[in-house]
Amino acid sequence: MAARRLSSLLSRSLHLPSASASASLGRSHGVARHINRFSTAAAVEELITPPVQVNHTKLLINGQFVDAASGKTFPTLDPRTGEVIANVAEGDLEDVNRAVAAARKAFDEGPWPKMSAYERSRIMLKFADLVEKHNDEIAALETWDNGKPYLQAAQAEVPSFVRLFRYYAGWADKIHGLTIPADGPHHVQTLHEPIGVAGQIIPWNFPLLMMAWKVGPALACGNTIVLKTAEQTPLTALYVANLFHEAGLPPGVLNIVSGFGPTAGAALASHMDVDKLAFTGSTETGQTVLQLAAKSNLKPVTLELGGKSPFIICEDADIDHAVELAHFALFFNQGQCCCAGSRTYVHERVYDEFVEKAKARAMRRVVGDPFKKGVEQGPQIDSEQFKKILRYIREGRDSSATLECGGDRIGSKGYFIQPTVFSNVQEDMSIAQDEIFGPVQCVFKFKDIGEVIKRANNTRYGLAAGVFTKNIDTANTLTRGLRAGTVWINCYDIFDAGIPFGGYKMSGTGREKGIYSLNNYLQVKAVVTPLKNPAWI
User: Could you tell me one molecular function GO term of this UniProt entry (predicted)?
Assistant: First the structure.
């Protein structure tokens, strides 16, 4: 399965580089740090020209690519350099109104909800085939706009995108209600109906995958959509949307508005003619989205928000394996992952050994142009995130935590940050409490299982958790004790299409992926009919 390939491929990509690469990319102090600055900066400056052209920069409304009503555009930047890739149409309230009107007409009058579920699935399958055909171009565009390693995009994320749409295409003709026995002479059935116009707001860290997580189930259920992309990464959604219409998607079924949160995002969240809202992003923005939805037409909202996920390494762990998995859990996607294992709890008996090996692994991590072979980590998404991460690193340095390695930017161009490891982290530190969303590993020490469960749960978040142990009883105790939507045992970031994903507490409401996500886009209607002289009840 492509989603399983996501984890296995990326785990393989984390294997140690050559000795020469390790030496040139050292992140310790003194001479090694000087070598790192010289060689890495040089590598970053020699950038590969992305093998793809930007052809779609306008809004998609009612099947047509159009300019924003205001005529405004905004730049989308290459995070390797901070330079402009393209200028993209900047949608705002008027454009959201046009997109919602197109989606409403497509739902009320168009062929999509009236089409047989089998026909809808055929269009979704044809779309998946087209995306697969254009895999390399789409991956290159994703890497260029986002900064993630090309290998990750081309061999994991685009195939996972395809797998997700095939998965949901398979669900389209298997959605049905129930026949319910009544106490008296009545025939009772439930209908599972599409909810209507779905507003969807996706983040910048996984633009393609988050689009699939939302658009796939909404279309399978027969809804129409207005999708707002993140202003940092608008390009791949527009590219694949063009393929959707090539596959036969009727006009107005999928509309895409690029723009900013306070304008386009707020307009979509508060729109009176949007029937359902789905949002992925920060917890703070999620609270605003929920308020806007409630104050408008009380539309139902699903939220996939932030996290500060614990990764617990027990005393019986194979330390070398645990170091590699904990490294992957945190540094994957430049640390820009809502479920990153950003609180690494290590049993006191193996703590010192783990810290030394985690430091060494981080110092071997290859940072550079994400289009180059062997690069494990590209730049952060933009200057705002770059500065935020460096601020948290300064706060960690100023606390009593120990900076084991990293802590600085790499080079003078773009948004590259050294893989950073802190040990002796305490629960009251900002780096322990807040979602940093960057390549900063925080290592804590614990004594026993009861203690670590309490500490792991002592957070406003509850998105995910990881457990590393050989003992099934320990694994079971932790699995049931941790308040998180997903618990990975001796693995991390397994994202099969059928596995539900979502959080406890302030990490969100509802679930995405799998059968559970279909409920987000369906209404349940009970139909009761009297029976006259029934042969049976």
Answer: aldehyde dehydrogenase (NAD+) activity
- For 219-271, write each residue's pLDDT tens digit: 999 999 999 999 999 999 999 999 999 999 999 999 999 999 999 999 999 99
- DSSP percent split of the chain into helix, strand, coil, nearest 5: 45, 20, 35
The three-state (H, E, C) secondary structure of 464-501, written as one string: EEEEECCCHHHHHHHHHHCCCCEEEECCCCCCCCCCCE
Q: What angle do CA 100, 106, 111 make, to 5 degrees?
A: 165
The pTM assigned to this predicted structure is: 0.92
**CB 440 within 8 Å of CB 420:** yes
pLDDT band of residue 30 (cuts 50, 70, 90) is: very low
Position 44 confidence tier, pLDDT thresholds 50, 70, 90: low
Nearest to 84 by CA among 74, 93, 94: 74
DSSP secondary structure letters along 261-278: IIIIIHHHHT-TT--EEE
Sign of CA pseudo-dihedral 277, 279, 283, 286: negative
Confirm if 487 and 464 have CB atoms less than 8 A apart.
yes
Could you tell me which residues come within 8 angstroms of residue 529 by beta carbon, excluding any fewer than 6 positions away?
Answer: 186, 187, 188
- Which two structure tokens, joined as six digits, stand for 66? 């159009």
From the list 260, 229, 264, 262, the residue with the least C-alpha distance to 93 is 264
Instruction: State which H helix or E strand residue 286 sits in.
Output: helix 283-295
Strand bridging mode 83-89 / 179-180 = unpaired
> 440-446 and 420-423 as β-strands: parallel, antiparallel, unpaired?
parallel
389 CB-near residues (< 8 Å, 6+ apart): 335, 380, 417, 436, 437, 438, 439, 440
Does residue 84 contact residue 114 with C-beta atoms inside 8 Å? no
Rounded to 10 degrees, what is the CA torsion of 220, 132, 137, 259?
A: 10
Residues 6+ apart with CB under 8 A from 521: 194, 195, 198, 217, 218, 220, 221, 223, 276
Distance (Å, rounded) from C-alpha 330 to C-alpha 389?
14
Residue whose token pair is 């095939």: 166
Segment (H or E) for 453? helix 449-457
CA distance 21 to 366: 8
Q: Which residue has the tokens 């629960």?
A: 427
d(CA 129, CA 133): 6
Crossing angle between the packed helical segments 135-146 and 207-220, to the nearest 10 degrees: 120
Measure the CA–CA gap between 60 and 459, rounded to whole angstroms: 40
Question: Of 4, 10, 5, 6, which Cα lies nearest the Cα of 325?
Answer: 10
pLDDT of residue 4: 44
DSSP 8-state symbol, 372: S
Distance separating alpha carbons of residues 100 and 269, to the nearest angstrom: 11
State how far the Cα of 453 lies from the Cα of 456, in Å rounded to an integer.
5
Residues marked active site are found at 304
* Rounded Cα gap, residues 396 and 91, in angstroms: 39
Distance between CA 327 and CA 321 in Å, rounded?
10
Chain centroid, CA 136 distance in Å? 20
